[in-house]
């Protein structure tokens, strides 16, 4: 089918820095191309990636019988600098958050500190991106590493319930199905928001039809105007 005329969907992948002594949640500048994005774009799993600072990754997805362009950026790419300073990282996140229309908050089930970063990152995104309708999904990755698991599935579910958002647990290394499901769901939610916003704009742009003039009132005013001139 032809490419949809709707504007591209902008998705942001938020990846906490795997560091135990964080005062503020930071972003990981080492993973400049996340395996989750690689899986979605190529269906392949790549464990190590070359730096690709600040790039956008694009793909066409099928939504409601149409092909829609999707642009994806991860927060390490947003940073564009190799820094672990929390303030600079949160500033980078703020810039990305204003651009994005949908968010994946990704933690590793093998790293408890990355899980603990999800709540403050979510709160920061909501502060910067004021539209409460903007879809956000929590994603627990590396679910296949049972021997190294530090975060239980119930922990992810509980956090998502408290924040009022969706939680999914996947394994990027095992297959691409779960990864594609995550992105497809987020794309659908963003697309719904696009449709809702365009409907609201159309409604607000409709000019109300003026009421039919009262002919008797017009005649009365006309007579009054004539009589005042005669006087």
Automatic annotation (TrEMBL):
Identify which top EC class this enzyme belongs to.
Answer: hydrolase
Q: Looking at the record, which segments are called Disordered?
A: 198-231
Q: What is its EC number?
A: 3.6.5.2
Record Pfam families: Ras (PF00071)
**What GO molecular function annotations does the UniProt record carry, in alphabetical order?**
G protein activity; GTP binding
Q: Which UniProt keywords apply?
A: GTP-binding, Hydrolase, Nucleotide-binding
Is the keyword ATP-binding assigned to this protein?
A: no
Keyword GTP-binding among UniProt keywords: yes
Q: Which reaction does it catalyse?
A: GTP + H2O = GDP + phosphate + H(+)
Q: Which InterPro entries match?
A: P-loop_NTPase, Ras-related_GTPase, Small_GTP-bd, Small_GTPase
Q: Which family does it belong to?
A: Belongs to the small GTPase superfamily. Ras family.
Protein's name in the database: small monomeric GTPase
Tell me which species this is from.
Apteryx owenii (Little spotted kiwi)
């Amino acid at each position: 089918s032809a490419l949809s005329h709707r504007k591209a969907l902008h998705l942001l992948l938020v990846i906490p820095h795997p560091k135990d002594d964080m005062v503020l949640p930071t972003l990981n500048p080492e993973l400049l191309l996340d395996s989750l994005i690689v899986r979605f774009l190529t269906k392949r799993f790549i464990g190590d990636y070359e730096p690709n600072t600040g790039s956008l990754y694009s793909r066409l997805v099928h939504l409601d019988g149409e092909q829609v362009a999707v642009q994806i950026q991860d927060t390490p790419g947003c940073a564009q600098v190799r820094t672990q300073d929390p303030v600079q990282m949160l500033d980078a996140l703020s810039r990305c958050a204003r651009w994005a229309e949908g968010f994946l908050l990704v933690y590793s089930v093998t790293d408890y500190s990355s899980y603990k970063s999800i709540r403050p990152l979510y709160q920061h995104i909501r502060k910067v991106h004021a539209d409460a309708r903007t879809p956000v999904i929590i994603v627990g990755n590396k679910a296949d590493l049972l021997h190294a698991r530090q975060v239980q599935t119930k922990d992810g579910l509980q956090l998502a319930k408290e924040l009022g958002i969706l939680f999914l647990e996947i394994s990027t290394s095992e297959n691409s199905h779960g990864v594609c499901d995550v992105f497809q769901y987020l794309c659908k939610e963003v697309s719904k928001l696009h449709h809702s916003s365009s409907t609201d704009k159309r409604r607000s742009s409709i000019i109300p039809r003026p009421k039919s003039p009262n002919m008797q009132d017009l005649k009365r005013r006309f007579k009054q105007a004539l009589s005042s001139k005669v006087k």
